[in-house]
Amino acid sequence: MAKQKKPARTPKPAEAPPAPVSDKRYRKDLYNLQVELVKLQRDIIAHDRRLLVIFEGRDAAGKDGVIKRIVQHLSPRETRVVALGKPSDRERSQWYFQRFTEHLPAAQELVLFNRSWYNRAGVERVMGFCTDEEHERFMNSVPLYENMLTGSGIQLLKYYLDITKPEQKTRLAARAKDPLKQWKISPIDHVALKHWRDYSRARDEMLARSHSLQAPWTIVRADDKRHARLNVIRDLLSRIDYDGKDIKAVAPDRHIVMPFEPALLKSGALAP
User: Fold this and answer.
1) β-bridge pairing 109-114 and 50-57
2) Following DSSP, what letter does each residue of 38-74 receive, concatenated?
3) Strand, helix or coil for residue 258
4) Quick one: angle between helices 225-238 and 23-46, nearest 10?
5) Taking the model in full, what pTM does it have?
6) Whole-number mean pLDDT of the chain?
7) Of 4-8, 10-14, 178-182, which range is least confident?
């Protein structure tokens, strides 16, 4: 008897994005989460902990906005935001990780990198600021480097903020017209859209090759800035134990923030 074919599976419809957050709800949720961040910092200080958070993403993905809301009410003595510029000639002659290493957190510190050593996997790779050999050496070295950091007691969180091409176009255009955001404009902005596919390929390779159990990536759907900000903070708080945690307040929306896994590269979850 001929084997009966199984009926083809009907693809699941894509989840609808969550509704926009009202001003009132956003302010209330952000306040409550910032209270939780203060609790976390008190715990970090009390137990001499070291926390490092890395933010990566395309130009105009919203990294500055997320970081601003995280540090807004934290102690500036124990909180540092690191956003390194173009390396000097001397720094270019150093071991690649050297200029980043000096900014790592000491005991009682929270350090946030607004872009990091992953520049070599992103903008340097796409724009030709590094050679193929330098890029390959970096990709082979970064899991070992991060394993050393976590092995030394640093807790490392890595977030990739992902936006769609139309959203990036809208944000870059708004940035160019805003007199208060002129400091954000760089020559890289003008070619970001032109190299969209190159950045997508570089992103996919970076995520696939630098994701590990010790230093996993977390993906953030960042087209909606408010949802991205709130859910990054929730996710960060949910991953760390600290005294007095409000478990319900820190539960992230997994439609917005999700642990990276290789299947996401083919599922359409990331902007193509």
Assistant:
1) parallel
2) HHHHHHHHHTT-EEEEEEEESTTSSHHHHHHHHHTTS
3) strand
4) 30
5) 0.93
6) 93
7) 10-14
**CB contact at 8 A, 231 and 257:** yes
Domain boundaries of the chain, sorted by first residue: 23-267
User: Cβ contacts of residue 39 below 8 Å, gap of 6+?
Assistant: 242, 243, 244, 245
For 128, the token pair is 């030709």
- Please write the tens of the pLDDT for every residue from 218-254: 999 999 999 999 999 999 999 999 999 999 999 999 9
Please report, to the nearest 10 degrees, the dihedral formed by the alpha carbons of residues 145, 146, 152, 156 taken in order: 160
pLDDT at 15: 58
Are 257 and 234 within 8 A, CB to CB? yes
> Tokens 């600021």, residue?
129
Q: In this predicted model, what pLDDT tens digit does every residue of 61-75 receive, in sequence order?
A: 999 999 999 999 999
Amino acid at 2: A
User: Tell me, which fold does domain 23-267 have in CATH?
Assistant: Rossmann fold (3.40.50)
- For tokens 């910032």, name the residue: 34
Q: Is 158 left (phi over 0), alpha (psi -120 to 50) or beta?
A: beta
